[in-house]
Amino acid sequence: MKGFAKIFEAIVASIVLLASLTFFFTPNVQRSGWDRASLQILVEDALESAYLNGTLERYVKTDNTTQLNMLFSAMLPKTVDFSIEVSGIPGKTINIVCVDCNQANMDDLSAILDPRDFSYKMKNTSIRIEPLVLATQNIPESTNMLFFFDKTKISAYQTKINDFLNASGGVFLFANLDAGDVGNTSVGNTFGLVWGDITNLPGRFGNVYDASLPGHFVARYYANISTRHLQDVQSETFTAFLPTGISGQNDQRNVVRTDNDRAYVRTNEVGQGRTVWFQDYARSDHDNQFTKQIDNLTKASIMWASGERSKLDMIKKTPAPVNFKSSIFVYDGDNYIIELTIWRIFF
Questions:
Q1: Rounded CA separation 31/231 (Å)
Q2: What CA–CA distance (Å, rounded) separates 335 from 341?
Q3: CATH for 93-305 (2.40.50.140, 3.40.50.11810, 3.60.15.10, 3.40.50.880)
Q4: Adjacency order of strands within the sheet including 80-87
């Protein structure tokens, strides 16, 4: 009995000791992650289902944000919220601010882009233009692109331009340049330009079939708004440009270049944004077929530089700090990506 009593006393003492030690330690409970995994699967199933039954493409093409949001609201739990983004095609509206533009500039840009309400592969797109004095006015939050006719404004507003590009904005310079404007300058660095020799040879698209190049997307947009097919514009020539001395560098950033490696239209990517330099051209008569060619090329370049991203939310939403994304690659008239960002309302 005495032996049993001692064993029992030892057990009790051990329990008391262990219980007292818990005062000095904080329990560490690991979440299993199964709730997140199940929600991720549910989101992927919702995207796949909407894509396979054709609903997703139809609502995106018609910009039917109401029905699209109702569709996902019905398929997802009530305890989550979500945001829908489409990338790879132009949005419903492209908002351009013409920096330090007078009325003549505004009229000129409107004539170049006419009509500003148009259809791209049965998807309606509208280009909106407003003037902005960048020295004294803030860039509206909805702006997709800063448009410049005056090349000297690039260096004057370089800080604001860089901030806008880092926020995924686009910058478009429509100007005739000389040797002193490019190289290690604000214009040269922002648009990726160096000088060569002057040429007045006609310009052509580069490789219109390589989907890794910006020129492919510009050519694709140009072909559609010109009621042409992509294969038809491969050898098309542009003759209304003013002579250029900008080197058509072998860096895959040329949209339109000459046979002697000079560029009329070049793209660049800075930060999260896109830039386009576009050579000036003769445009006294916008009914002239050669002028209209480059009018359409300007519009196509703007479509690319706008970022090809748009939100399809009914109201502006800010995701919670903890969120996750699911996306699907859609094969339609154009290929594009639909991304669904989801988060718990109570986090």
A1: 55
A2: 20
A3: 3.40.50.880
A4: 309-311, 80-87, 335-344, 324-331
Stated length of the chain: 347
Q: What is the dihedral angle through the alpha carbons of 174, 234, 86, 93, rounded to the nearest 10 degrees?
A: 40
* 277/175 Cα distance (integer angstroms): 8
Parse the chain into domains and list their residue ranges. Answer: 34-88+321-344, 93-305
Cross-strand partners of 273: 270
Name 89's Cβ contacts closer than 8 Å, sequence gap at least 6: 120, 123, 308, 334, 336
3-state secondary structure of 229: coil
If you compute the radius of gyration of the chain from its CA atoms, what whole number of angstroms results? 28
Residue 194 near residue 182, CB atoms below 8 Å: yes
Contact of 170 with 275, CB cutoff 8 Å: yes
Cβ atoms of 261 and 211 closer than 8 Å: no
- Please return the burial class of 200, using the count of CB atoms within 10 Å of its CB with bins 0-12, 13-18 and 19+: exposed
The strands making up 263-270's β-sheet, listed across from edge to edge, are 117-120, 123-132, 93-99, 145-148, 170-174, 273-278, 263-270, 254-257, 203-205, 237-238
pLDDT tens digits for range 13-39: 666 655 665 555 555 555 545 567 788
DSSP-based three-state secondary structure for 230: helix
pTM of the model: 0.86
Encoding tokens for residue 113? 């882009």
Spell out where the chain has E strands: 80-87, 93-99, 117-120, 123-132, 145-148, 170-174, 195-199, 203-205, 237-238, 244-246, 254-257, 263-270, 273-278, 309-311, 324-331, 335-344
- State the number of CA atoms in the 13 A half-sphere of 267 facing the CB: 27
Q: pLDDT tens digits for 40-60?
A: 888 899 999 999 989 999 998
| Structure tokens, 70 | 């109702």
Sign of the four-CA dihedral 53, 55, 56, 58: positive
